[in-house]
Amino acid sequence: MSRRPLWLVTLWVACVAAECGPRTDDNSRKTKEESNLPPEQRDAHALGSEVFDLIDRAVAYRSSHRGRPAANLTQMGIESLTPATVRRMVNLQREPVITVAFRRPEQRQIVSCRGDSGILSEASINGGRFTLMCTAKSGAQRPMEVGELPSEE
User: Between vectors from CA 105 to CA 55 and to CA 35, what angle results, nearest 5°?
Assistant: First the structure.
């Protein structure tokens, strides 16, 4: 048996691992779809992705620590301040509630959104979509559905 087939297999595995080949335009499609959204929906999507990630991590922390939730984000190894947002976590009867707010809300229609661990099951049932309670610039609060954008197929 020659070494050539082994070399080709190794090259093929390396290309698969490096995602060589024809690229799908998923990221640019998502960006294009998000740019077509109204400003308030765009703000809610930005905040919603952070809320979802933080809730997922908080629930994972609780399950790996025998049901004891983290007292704060720092205990989970997460910064509460990012360049664009402020993140807060409280526990209500061992259930994490995450609030994410924009640091500079002047140009935003939605200034903050919050969610609890129920969004994880809601997203798994609804194809990635879930509902958050969001606060508008005026101070009014209302539920907003965020998550995966519907495909245009």
Answer: 75
Domain boundaries, the chain: 37-147
pLDDT in tens, 68-90: 999 999 999 999 999 999 999 99
- Which of 119, 114, 120, 111 lies closest to 140, judged by CA? 111
pLDDT of residue 60: 96
Query: Residue 22 has which token pair?
Result: 């024809």
- Stated pTM of the model: 0.75
The rounded distance, in Å, linking the Cα atoms of 98 and 58 is 9
144-150 own/partner pairs: CB under 8 Å, 24+ apart: 144/40, 144/41, 144/44, 144/48, 144/110, 144/113, 146/41, 146/44, 146/45, 146/47, 146/48, 146/49, 146/113, 147/45, 147/48, 147/52, 147/123, 149/30, 149/33, 149/34, 149/37, 149/45
